[in-house]
Amino acid sequence: MTAENPNSRLEAFCDGVFAIALTLLIIDIKIPTTIEITNTDDLWLAIMHITPSIFAFVLSFIIILITWVNHHNSFTLINKSSNTFIYANGFLLLTVVFIPFPTSLLGEHLLTNHSSPAVILYTAIIAIQGLAWVLLSAAALNNELAKSEKAIAQIKINRQNGYITFIIYSLLAIISFWFPLTIAIITTLTLIFWLFYGVKMKHE
Length: 204
Fold this sequence. Notes:
0% strand, mainly alpha
């Protein structure tokens, strides 16, 4: 841990966790060995069979990418740490490393008539991640970790976005009981919005 950046070890650890989570996403994307492939048409059909898994992979990649960018930007707002902040950060990382599991379920069951548990779990983990952002922001504010008044204002915005995320995706998770495919589409659109919103904010 250096004097210039007292959170360098924590950031390095977090980057490693994000990298592992991204790697785990791709592991389940493979053509099942039960599918017999004897010609080109068979291979194309097999690839089409795993299209939902590819879709789920891309969607989760976007989630983790957005989370990583926000996490990186959050660490630029503080110049010290605390036990409360570290544990809140650990809770956020827990939501990140859990994402590959619902991603696998979503890819396997999205286009079936029993997809609701997969969609519920997927949207629920996003909601919980919003709660994690609330706790992380609260820890930074309560322990006075921000490096400036401008940083405090931005952390409060992050906390507000965390509440919004928690509320929206909690509602989506509940509605998924009845309309899983519709909620999967809405979730995709909202994540695309957050991605473009993040890119726009990055260039402002």
